[in-house]
Amino acid sequence: MRIEEEGDRNIDSAAVMVNAPHFFKVILNNCLQDGKLGIPRKFTRKYGQGLSNTAFLKLLSGAEWNVELTESDGEVWLQKGWPKVAKYYSVKQGHFLVF
């Protein structure tokens, strides 16, 4: 029997994330001002078939946020709900986020 340390869960979760579809964003000021975060086209072309209107952002801590997706002219954004997430986690220009 193995007793899990607190850090073990984070390592296991991070290992799973490496194999899951993911993308990164460097936060620019317009993302915060406009209240939306663009999802890279390469990601949406590869994984965007049948996207729902809602994305569930699950953090390693176990927290989960619902954010509505907006699509227009081949662009997809995290929009309604994104400003709350950014404010709660004090997301600032220059931060590097992995989704």
Question: Can you offer a commentary on this structure?
Answer:
By secondary structure, this protein is an alpha+beta fold. It has one domain (6-98): Beta Barrel (At1g16640 B3 domain), CATH 2.40.330. 34% of the residues lie in helices and 27% in strands. It has four helices and six strands; from the N terminus they run αβαβαβββαβ. The chain has helices at residues 6-19, 29-34, 41-47, 82-88; strands spanning 24-26, 37-39, 54-58, 64-72, 75-78, 96-98. It has a four-stranded antiparallel β-sheet. A two-stranded antiparallel sheet has the order 1-6. Strand 4 (64-72) and strand 5 (75-78) form a beta hairpin. The longest helix is centred in the first third of the chain and has 14 residues, at 6-19. The chain starts with 5 loop residues before the first helix and ends with a strand. It is found in: Nucleus. Its main location: nucleus.
